[in-house]
Amino acid sequence: MDPFTQGIADAAIRRVNSMSNSNIPVTDRERPRSKPTLLHKVKNKAMQERHHLDEEFYPEDSYGEESEAAPVAGYGGDAESTVSEEELLKKCKLAFEKDIKVDLIDGVDLRIMCRFLGISAVNDIKEHDFKEVPLITSLVMQSIENYMASKGYAFTGEMNFDMNGKPTPTQKQVWTTKGEEVSFTVNGYVYYEKLNSSNRNDNVSFLVYTDKHNNIAQISCFTNNEKRSEKIILDLVSFAKKNNCLRGVKLKNVDLINSSFEEIISDPKYAWDNYYFPDDVRKVFEEEIFGFLRNIKEYNKYGIVKRGYILHGEPGCVLKETKIKVRKKKKEGKHRILNQ
Fold first, then answer.
1. How far is residue 129's CA from residue 234's CA, in Å, rounded to a whole number?
2. For the chain, what is the domain count?
3. Three-state SS sequence of the chain
4. Could you tell me if 308 and 245 lie in one domain?
């Protein structure tokens, strides 16, 4: 009998002896077989628990399609082709120790982080930060979800905590661009899980933090590898430059500190029909300038992130037969209009 089972059996015998009026030790051999004894129940329970643990650590699939349950050494099956009790107990011990280490970590946010990343110590959490003026950092925050989706990650959830470690709602920023509302998290932990992977070490978490009173905005990426966290941040920033929600939007009253702006709404009086341009110039604008602004994502796919033309010539130069008005500044600072 192995030490684990022997220990359980000895404890059960001592318990039965203490309850018996007889001074003769009670053993399993002296009890009638027709009625289950306490020792039998303890041993059977131990066997069932071992079988359950064996199924947990060694799933049914690993034993072939025809197996109904994973055999445990000492309880039937071929002992040479099964996992030994010693190995099984070792795995149980390691899993228990890992859980205990996480449970003893100070701070619920760090405990959740460790479990999500599949690690058991705070020192194993590897972090890399990004910090810029609030508006730039907010644009990167807004791009996190799309960036992670492009890398094969799924949004798992988000949480936030107060100074006492109690859960609080995450804080959102809402922008309106191109007639649509864009909402994203600016305060809280955001969790992403790798698709088609059961390994928690592949997971990624972000802490997004914004303090408008002190003009602070920061993004922290957490994984189990320092270089991996750094690469994710660098790739995220590069992605945000080409794919943020303000690309192609005309802005005014931009406030970099408070992350605010106003979108310029096109005025009908500035339509093409109200201005004169030669046909070839108008065609260039329509196809190369406004066409780019209308299809930024398509251009970005081919690495084209900027587009522009320089128009040159003397002030007011158009077709020779066109009469135009030219303003000339006088010394007094006023203007007078001359017909030419």
1. 10
2. 3
3. CCHHHHHHHHHHHHHHHHHCCCCCCCCHHHCCCCCCCHHHHHHHHHHHHHHHHHHHHCCHHHHCCCCCCCCCCCCCCCHHHCCCHHHHHHHHHHHHHHHHHHHCCCCHHHHHHHHHHCCCCHHHCEEEEEECCHHHHHHHHHHHHHHHHHCCEEEEEEEEECCCCCEECCEEEEEEECCEEEEEEEEEEEEEEECCCCCHHHCEEEEEEEECCCCEEEEEEEECCHHHHHHHHHHHHHHHHHHCCCCCCCEEEEECCCCEEEECCCCHHHCHHHCCCCHHHHHHHHHHHHHHHHCHHHHHHCCCCCCCCCCCCCCCCCCCCCCCEEEEECCCCCEEEEEC
4. no
Structural domain that includes position 316: 268-339
Within a domain: 12: yes
C-alpha to C-alpha distance for 282 and 257, rounded to whole angstroms? 38
For 20-41, the pLDDT digits (tens) are 444 444 444 444 444 455 545 5
Q: Give per-residue pLDDT as tens, 249-299.
A: 888 899 998 888 988 887 777 676 766 677 777 787 777 777 887 787 777
Task: Identify which of 116, 288, 283 has the alpha carbon closest to the alpha carbon of residue 190.
Answer: 116
Of 312 and 123, the structure prediction assigns the larger pLDDT to 123
Contacts of 237 (CB under 8 A, 6+ apart): 130, 140
Q: What is the pLDDT of residue 17?
A: 57
Among 203, 223, 255, the domain boundary falls at: 255
Contact criterion met (CB below 8 Å) for 148 and 204: yes
For residue 114, count CB atoms less than 10 angstroms from its CB and return exposed for 0-12, middle for 13-18, buried for 19 or more: buried
Residue closest to 295 by CA, chosen among 313, 312, 307, 282: 307
pTM of the model: 0.57
